[in-house]
Prior knowledge:
It is a single chain. By secondary structure, the protein is an all-alpha fold. It has a single domain (17-209, 241-436), classed as Up-down Bundle (Growth Hormone, Chain: A), CATH 1.20.1250. 79% of the residues lie in helices and 1% in strands. It has 21 helices and 2 strands. Strands 1-2 form a two-stranded antiparallel ribbon. A hairpin with a 2-residue loop joins β1 and β2. The longest helix is centred in the middle third of the chain and has 40 residues, at 169-208. The protein is globular.
Amino acid sequence: MSKDMRKEGKLVKSSDILGNPGRGLMAGTIAFFAGYAAVALFGITVHSIAPLLHLTIVEIGWLVAIPLLTGSLLRIPFGALVDAVGGRRTIMIQLLAALIGMAGLILTLHLIYLNSLTASVGYALLMLSGAVAGIGISTFASGIAYVSYWFPQRRQGYALGTFAGVGNAAPGIFTAILPFALVSIGLIGSYIAWAIFLAIMILVFFLIGHDAYYFQLVRRGLLRSDAIDKAKALGEELVPSGSTARSLAIAARAWRTWPLTIMYLTSFGGFEALTEWLPTYWTKYLGISLVLAGILTGIVYSLLTALIRVPGGWWSDRWSGEMVAIVSYLILILGSVLFMTSHSLIAGIISEVVMAMGMGIANAAVFKMVPKYVPEAVGGATGWVGGLGAVGGLLIPPIMAYIAAVMGKPGYAYGFIIFVILGILSMILALILRSTSR
């Protein structure tokens, strides 16, 4: 940043341009970690909430799903919004909305304990507040775009792998912690502690988070063409389309967006699905306690899936996202077959570890390819791939539940056939991408 820049006859000093790639990665990761914790919102606490409102199994299912629903679908507009206004503003909107949702949950739970609400009203308010809190989950799409614009193509795997790997650790950590928090500080106390944590993370992001150079230059009055030139002179390779609608349209017209979406539905949608489903699998199929099921799901599965995404990004930089994706889906298929044939706790844990490795590495490989194939609309592509891909977290658990309902207890194991099918399809798509890679 050695040269000053002209801004309508005035100088834009290099000291006015804030941040750097490392700081951008740190800020984006902190924001995503805080927002993504909402995945675990009702998965564990629903066991404390359900008796208060006498909820049916269907009502419980919707309560668990609602944060994922808003968090998944809103990735599409929020991811594309980054291309228009930058990631900092977009992420702040998402995190503040999540905090408002948490406040709504705390107030609603307080009123339920005071018997000030009927069961139907209390349930409706929990659904509404959970939906708003779930907006924090959509920081994945905006965060991917935010971080992508800070880094060159050759380091996208490392940057996005680190961002998503650390951020994805949030559900695992919270799933493991929540059972103990519920015992020690109670349901409302757990939510208050969660809200305080979120508020602190919002403040940290506000203080250290800055948009990539292009957005800062445009905000200071430079014309788009001048901002692009100056940003590239400062080392920024990717620049946005400049419009939310245009970004989504460009990404939708790029045919490779859609294989990547299906592949991400398998690995990341599958990750979310198993974060929800595995506690049921462990307790209903193998008969272990809820606390142990929470540890196995949160620490062994969710945390491993998240953290292995970091080296998965490095491997994708070195051997290409396509090649790493092919290998990772093979591992995922192996884990699925092991689950289908497992009848003991040890065998189930081995299956879980293999599945976690395949899913985590695949997640990194897919998003290594997004900036490569849609460099002119990373925000839009991130929205489509991240948003629609995450819908797998909503679709897969009901399918596995239906198989269990039809087949009885063995169905909890045979339900993993869905991942064999999706894994084979995703591996074929990765082979197609590799054969047509430019």
